[in-house]
Each structure stands twice: as C-alpha cells, then as structure tokens.
C-alpha cells in the first residue's frame, strides 16, 4: 500500500492539499489490539485531528505559523482489526514509502507497539540513528503474558535492533524490576520521573545525529492527560512536555521523524488530552521540521 492511499477524513488544521509539495506526512495508526489495560487508543488519531481545529495557527513557543511548514495529512492507515502482525507489516510498508519519497513521517497512535514497525523502516534507511523515548513506562519487556507483540515491548525491540546505547528514555516511572535492571546493565540511557532536565544533559551528546522521537501521552500526569489507556500517577505537566519539545527544537540534533501515541479519548470527556496532544503536534511540526 502506498501512503497516499490511506483513508482521509478530518485533517489536521492547515494540512496542505498537495502531497508532492509537502515536507511532512501526518498519518494515523488506529491500533489498540495488544493493550494490557484499557482499549480505545485506536480512536486517538481522529480525535486529535478533530480538536486541532481549535488551535491557533501561530506558536508563540517557536515564533512560527503552521503555513510555514507544508504538511500533508494522509488520514489513517486502514489496519485490520485484531491482527497485530499484519498491522505492523502494513505500518512498516507505509513508512517505507514515506521515507522513500523523502518526507518527514509524523505518526499518530494508537498503542505504543505501532512505533516498532517505524523503527524497522528507519533502520533500513539510516545506518545510524538514535531514539528519544518519552513515556511513563519503560516498555522494555520481552513479552507480556507470553505475547512478544505487545505495547509493553517496543523499546526493548528497539534496543535489540539498533543497540541499547542508541536508546534514550525519559520520564519513566513504571515497569517491572527486570526492565529497570535491563536498562541499567544494557548501556541504554534511562531518566526516571523527569524529562526536561535530563534532556538538557543528553542533547549535547546527540548533537549532529539523526534522532527519532516517540512520545507516549501517558508521560503526562493523569491530571493533565486522563484520556489514555494506562495512566500513571506522578507524571510531568503539559508545560514540562512543551519545554522538552522546545529543547529538542533548539538543539543540534537532526530529527528524522516522530510519533505521539496512546491518546484514548473515551476516558476524557473534557477532551483535554487530545487538545494537549494536538498542541504538541503543532509544536513538533514547527520546531522539528527545518
């Protein structure tokens, strides 16, 4: 499947009508087939687009307007309900096509397993890249209740694919003891609880490198983002995540793509979670796409 064939419904505010002229492809991955607690993140991409219409087009954080970045919202990939392996294969093929066209992939999840096929696609294009992972959960399990395809496994898979020394996790406050032990012994970087301050220390180390950024909305405290499948108390604020996005934007890293996952709007009738997510997407577009 080529990426322009994805179903298009609502689009993110100021989406450019012409794919060929666009620098960025926004695409949705409506999958929650492997979640371990509450389903519903498959509805995240559509809701993020819907509430984006309430955004200002100007960002005072980046001092840029959305019209300055040409991005094409291709809609959601039509993933087969309940079939993780086929869904993963479709996402990988889809991102292959985005990268082949020289576009910046910006994905909307969906559960966090959707990042795994993106990592695989990037690995085929780039000889060397690092991952910045911002999340409440370590996601370093080998399997969950005997199932290796789980939203609790993508970062462990990433470590095995590109080497743990190229994986940097921030905001982590939940996981099995064995996951934290693996992080300590493997050589990967893990910052527990906080995001912005450890990012300030790490970004100079990543200067000049290709970096992919994956953000799980549950890194936010449930007070700021109740609409997620596996909420964890003790998280950061929306302001702190915006600071982290700005730090990456102002650094010397070369962001080669990004995703934002695990928005489950059914658990947030106030819509504050997708509203926050849409603002983060705006800042990612304006700060990370040069």
UniProtKB/TrEMBL annotation:
The keyword Hydrolase applies. Keywords: Hydrolase, Metal-binding. Its EC number is 3.5.3.11. The keyword Isomerase does not apply. InterPro entries: Agmatinase-rel, Ureohydrolase, Ureohydrolase_dom_sf, Ureohydrolase_Mn_BS. GO terms for molecular function: agmatinase activity. It holds the Pfam family Arginase. PROSITE patterns: ARGINASE_1, ARGINASE_2. This is Agmatinase. It comes from Pseudalkalibacillus berkeleyi. The gene is speB.
């Amino acid at each position: 499947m080529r990426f322009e064939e994805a179903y298009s419904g609502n689009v993110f505010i100021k989406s450019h009508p012409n794919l060929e002229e666009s620098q960025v492809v926004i695409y949705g991955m409506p999958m929650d087939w492997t979640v371990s607690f509450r389903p519903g993140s498959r509805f995240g991409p559509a809701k993020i687009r819907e509430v984006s219409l309430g955004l200002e087009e100007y960002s005072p954080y980046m001092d840029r307007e959305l019209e300055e970045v040409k991005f094409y919202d291709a809609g959601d990939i039509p993933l087969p309900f309940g079939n993780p392996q086929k869904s993963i294969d479709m996402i990988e093929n889809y991102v292959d096509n985005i990268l082949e066209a020289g576009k910046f992939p910006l994905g909307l999840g969906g559960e966090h397993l959707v990042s795994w096929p993106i990592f695989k696609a990037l690995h085929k294009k780039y000889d060397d890249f690092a991952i910045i992972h911002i999340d409440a959960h370590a996601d370093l399990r080998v399997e969950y209740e005997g199932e290796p395809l789980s939203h609790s496994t993508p970062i462990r898979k990433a470590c095995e694919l590109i080497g743990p020394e190229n994986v940097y996790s921030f905001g982590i406050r939940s996981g099995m003891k064995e996951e934290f032990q693996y992080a300590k012994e493997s050589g990967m970087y893990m910052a527990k609880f906080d995001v912005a301050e450890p990012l300030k220390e790490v970004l100079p180390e990543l200067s000049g490198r290709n970096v992919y950024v994956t953000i799980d909305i549950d890194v936010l405290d449930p007070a700021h983002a109740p609409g997620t499948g596996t909420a964890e108390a003790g998280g950061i604020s929306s302001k702190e995540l915006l600071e982290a996005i700005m730090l990456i934007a102002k650094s010397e890293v070369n962001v080669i793509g990004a995703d934002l996952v695990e928005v489950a709007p059914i658990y947030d009738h106030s819509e504050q979670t997708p509203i926050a997510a849409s603002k983060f997407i705006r800042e990612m577009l304006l700060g990370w796409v040069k």
